[in-house]
Amino acid sequence: MIVEAHTVRFDSLPLDSGALLTPVEVAYESYGRLNADKSNAILVLHAFTGDAHAAGISHETGKPGWWDNMIGPGKAFDTNQYFVLCSNVLGGCRGTTGPSSIDPATGSPYAMSFPVITIGDMVRLQKMLVDHLGIPKLLAVAGGSMGGMQALEWAVSYPDRVVAAIPIACTTRHSAQQIAFNEVGRQAIMADPDWRDGNYYGGQPPARGLAVARMVGHITYMSDDSMREKFGRRLSDKENFSFGFDVDFEVESYLRYRGTQFVNRFDANSYLYITKALDYFDLTAGHQTLNAAMEAASARFLVISFSSDWLYPSYQSQEIVRALRSRNCDVAYVELQANYGHDSFLVDVGEQTTLVRGFLASTFEKIA
Amino acid sequence: MTAETPRKSPFVRELLGRSDYAIIGEIVEARTKVLDLGCGEGELLAWLTANKEVESRGVEISGAKVARAIARGVSVHQSDIDEGLADYPNQAFDYVILSQTLQETRHPRQVLREMVRVGRRVIVAFPNFGHWRVRLAMLFSGRAPRTKLFPYEWYDSPNIHFLTVQDFEELAAAEGLLVERRYFLAGHRKILALPNLLAETAVFLVSGK
């Protein structure tokens, strides 16, 4: 399945901060066909560093999508039955307007003059895209991590536009620990002299800072078990310690590799803006309790967490479930046994596939 | 999947391989809201949804079973029954079902109270520890009874609170619950007399006052 990205431009997007972004572009991909009554559309929402290329083989890069094991003919999100849509988030650097985009007022990249954005802003832009495509109501919104937070935001902000929501490995608000890891990443970037207050476009990007940020991130996405299994204390291409500070262990080599790879595909300022949006996200804001905050949600929910995910631990998913149950909402929840930590929703998709497939089928049946 | 549950016959057919399910399938009225506690893989809920158009929810502790229930389209939530009901609002369901699980809960009295709180009606099915075979097994072997109904070694048994038909009647009375209907089964036969001695399984339909 060769897929192509599309871009839509909107005149303006009002932001939660009060600022107005003009104009704004959003990059998206789609898989499968929209049916005649437009009732089979599913919006898949990517995690922090993901992009619109969720499935198939990219026409441009030749690479498979980030959730290609979940989306496609006969897969969990079965493109023989559903029309699956994925867009790059606001503030990103993969086709949708973000800090690396050109500010029409100055003719140069926004950099740090880009307005601060929220998960709510990302979802507002997605809703404009869904409107643009003429889809009256999404069969489902689904995603893991930041994608799950967007799914929650959709369910609360546009309840009459979603039949079902599948938030995976996520939370209604970041804990101190989650904010702390994001702050380490931001500080690594901002401490890199090449960052130059964000004005590095056209010059040397803050590659070392961004790579360190990514290394920290990667550790939080794995589990003690999965790291032991994958690396243990194995040495990297050597028999003995080097008694120096070059790479000794395989895990060091892996993290360095992941760090440098990341620099080629991700913008450091986008890293700053999106992590800030994650940290600001709080579904409870403006309400007495989470139960009250979720009052508006009317979707059917499938909530999934993973046993080894210590970055977004199961208790955070259970909070979502408890709030929904207290309002007697239709909610299914399971903690899947998986060893891969937070990354499980991307890599260990066997059981997740069965769950999502059955949940979608029964949801589709209900509206038919 | 169809269940034929003749009303007047002394025999009960099986529903999904179980005679207590056949009784439950008969009790539950169409287009109601049902919560099944310890719902396993959601077989009963799926049947009730398909055949009685109920709105169904389940609670189950085993993640593997929850996963299979969700895969068949039933909204099941992974949790412990002893704690799992606290979040539901009062009278959220028309029926709350607890089938063959009361004797496995840590705090059966509290579970029963919670069931009556969240459901207008409660259906409890349990194996009768007062059955004559259990009594004889205990009397003659001098060991924790092992029968067809209670097949486990004492150290392997999930059953931690044994109860008889009479015990349940007394608890229901003590809790001020109204027993609306009671069914007693031995195999596929309905027991009409001496249920505490002759019933293998009891199914009670109760409501709060």
How would you describe the overall organization of this protein?
The complex is a heterodimer of chains A (368) and B (209). Chain A has 368 residues and is of the alpha/beta class. Chain A folds into 2 domains: 2-173 and 280-367, 3-Layer(aba) Sandwich (Rossmann fold), CATH 3.40.50.1820; 178-277, Rna Polymerase Sigma Factor, Chain: A. Helix content of chain A is 36%, strand content 17%. Chain A is built from 11 helices and 14 strands. Chain A has helices at 119-132, 146-157, 176-191, 207-221, 224-230, 250-265, 268-280, 290-293, 314-326, 344-347, 350-367; strands spanning 2-3, 6-10, 13-14, 20-21, 24-31, 41-45, 57-58, 71-72, 77-78, 83-87, 138-144, 162-168, 300-306, 331-336. Chain A has an 8-stranded mixed β-sheet, with helices on both faces. A two-stranded parallel ribbon of chain A has the order 1-7. In chain A, helix 9 links the parallel strand 13 and strand 14. The two termini of chain A are 28 Å apart. The model of chain A has no long low-confidence stretch (mean pLDDT 96). Chain B has 209 residues and is α/β, with parallel strands linked by helices. Chain B has one domain (19-130, 163-207): 3-Layer(aba) Sandwich (Rossmann fold), CATH 3.40.50. Helix content of chain B is 32%, strand content 23%. Chain B has 8 helices and 8 strands, in the order αβαβαβαβαβααββαβ. Chain B has an 8-stranded mixed β-sheet, sandwiched between helices. In chain B, strand 6 and strand 7 (189-190) form a beta hairpin. The longest helix of chain B has 11 residues, at 108-118. Chain B starts with 18 loop residues before the first helix and ends with a strand. Residues 1-6 of chain B have low confidence and may be disordered.
